C-alpha cells in the first residue's frame, strides 16, 4: 500500500481523507492544514492524524494529495516533488500556465508521477460512451450551478468550465485554432457566468457555457459527429446515444427512416450503454495508485491538466 497524506482539509479535502482511509490501495498517514483550529477539530471528530507542518507530512508519505486553494498548488507541489514524492493535485493544476509547466519539468527531473483531479473523466456516464465519441465536429456543454460562496475567489471558468474544457480536449484530436468568449461578473468580483467558442484546426467547434448563479444545477454535454449524436448528463449520470446507418432495402415496419435531399435513406437507432455506478473521486485516486505501482501513465497527466489551464486562461483573457 502507498502511504498517502492530504494537504488541505476543507470541504473537498475531507472527502479525500475519507476515501483514502477507505481505499485498499493507500494507507492514510494523515493531513496538514495551516488552520490549526480547523485541523484540531477534524482530528478530534474523525481521528485523522494532523501533522504540525507541511514538511513533516511530506516526509512521512509516498503520495501527496494536494487539495489546497489554487494559489498554493504550485508551492505545495514543488516541495513534494523536491522530496521525490508523487503528487495528486486538484484542478486547476496551478494558478498560472508558467507554474504548471515548471511542475511538469520538475516531476520529470525527479522521476515522480503526477495526476490532476479532473474528476469528470471518471464520471460513469462519460466512461460508458467515451469510446463511442469519435471525431466530433460540434460540441455543446452547459455547466450551471446555484450560487455558493465557496470557489468564487476564481472566475467561473477555472471553477466550473475547466471540467468541460478538459473533457473536450480529451476527445478532440486536434489543436485549438481560435477562442472567442465573454464573461460577466454579477455577484462576485470575478466572472460568474461565461460563454466560450473554441474552434479547432480540424474544423470542430465547441460552445461552452458555465454559470454559478443559476436557479438550478445542470452538467450536460452534447457531441455531434458523422452519423451519431451523443448526450452525456454528468449530473444525473445518464447518456443518450442516437446513431444512423444506411437503411436496408426493406426496413422493419417500426424502423425510423429519414431520407435526405439526395435521396439517401438512413435508419435511426438508439443505443443504451451500460453505466456502472462508481465513486469518481475514489476511482481517480486509485487509478493514480495503479499508475505508480505499474509505472504507467496516469489517466489525467500534468501535461493534460496544463493544456486545460492554457485554454481556460485564454478564455479569461478574451473577456
Number of helix segments? Answer: 9
Q: What's the mean pLDDT score?
A: 95
Percentage of β-strand residues = 25-35%
Low confidence ranges: none
Label the overall shape: globular
CATH topology category name of the largest domain? Dihydrodipicolinate Reductase, domain 2
Structural class: alpha/beta
Distance between the termini: 46 Å
Helix content percent band: 25-40%
Along the chain, the helix and strand elements come as EHEHHEHEHEHEHEEEEEEEEHH
Domain Gfo/Idh/MocA-like oxidoreductase N-terminal: 3-118
GO molecular function: nucleotide binding
Domain GFO/IDH/MocA-like oxidoreductase: 156-216
Protein name: Gfo/Idh/MocA family oxidoreductase
Please explain how this structure is put together.
The structure is a single chain. With 319 residues, the protein is an alpha/beta fold. The protein has 2 domains: 2-112, NAD(P)-binding Rossmann-like Domain (Rossmann fold, 3-Layer(aba) Sandwich), CATH 3.40.50.720; 121-279 and 312-317, Dihydrodipicolinate Reductase, domain 2 (2-Layer Sandwich). 33% of the residues lie in helices and 29% in strands. The protein has 9 helices and 14 strands. A 9-stranded mixed sheet has the order 7-8-9-6-10-11-12-14-13. The longest helix is centred in the middle third of the chain and has 16 residues, at 156-171. It is globular, with a radius of gyration of 22 Å. The model has no long low-confidence stretch (mean pLDDT 95).
Amino acid at each position: 500500500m502507498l502511504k498517502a497524506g492530504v494537504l488541505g482539509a476543507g470541504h473537498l479535502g475531507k472527502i479525500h481523507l475519507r476515501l483514502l482511509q477507505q481505499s485498499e490501495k493507500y494507507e492514510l498517514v494523515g493531513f496538514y492544514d495551516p488552520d490549526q483550529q480547523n485541523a484540531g477539530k477534524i482530528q478530534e471528530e474523525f481521528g485523522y492524524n494532523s501533522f504540525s507542518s507541511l514538511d513533516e507530512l511530506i516526509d512521512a508519505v509516498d503520495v501527496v494529495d494536494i487539495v489546497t486553494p489554487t494559489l498554493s498548488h504550485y508551492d505545495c507541489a514543488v516541495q513534494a516533488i523536491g522530496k521525490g514524492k508523487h503528487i495528486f493535485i486538484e484542478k486547476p493544476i496551478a494558478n498560472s500556465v508558467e507554474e504548471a509547466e515548471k511542475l511538469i519539468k520538475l516531476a520529470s527531473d525527479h522521476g515522480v508521477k503526477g495526476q490532476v483531479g479532473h474528476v469528470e473523466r471518471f464520471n460513469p456516464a462519460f466512461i460508458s460512451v467515451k469510446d463511442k465519441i469519435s471525431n466530433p465536429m460540434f460540441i455543446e456543454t452547459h455547466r450551471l450551478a446555484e450560487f455558493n460562496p465557496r470557489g468564487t475567489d476564481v472566475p467561473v471558468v477555472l471553477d466550473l468550465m475547466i471540467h468541460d474544457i478538459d473533457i473536450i480536449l480529451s476527445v478532440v484530436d486536434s489543436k485549438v485554432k481560435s477562442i472567442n468568449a465573454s464573461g460577466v461578473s454579477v455577484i462576485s468580483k470575478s466572472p460568474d457566468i461565461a460563454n466560450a467558442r473554441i474552434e479547432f484546426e480540424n474544423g470542430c467547434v465547441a460552445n461552452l457555457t458555465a454559470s454559478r448563479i443559476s436557479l438550478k444545477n445542470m452538467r450536460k454535454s452534447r457531441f455531434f459527429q458523422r452519423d451519431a449524436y451523443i448526450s452525456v448528463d454528468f449530473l444525473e449520470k445518464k447518456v443518450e446515444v442516437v446513431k444512423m446507418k444506411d437503411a436496408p432495402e426493406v426496413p422493419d415496419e417500426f424502423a425510423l427512416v429519414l431520407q435526405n435531399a439526395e435521396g439517401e435513406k438512413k435508419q435511426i437507432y438508439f443505443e443504451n450503454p451500460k453505466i456502472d455506478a462508481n465513486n469518481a473521486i475514489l476511482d481517480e485516486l486509485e487509478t493514480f495508485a495503479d499508475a505508480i505501482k505499474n509505472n504507467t501513465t496516469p489517466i489525467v497527466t500534468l501535461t493534460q491538466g496544463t493544456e486545460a489551464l492554457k485554454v481556460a486562461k485564454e478564455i479569461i483573457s478574451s473577456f
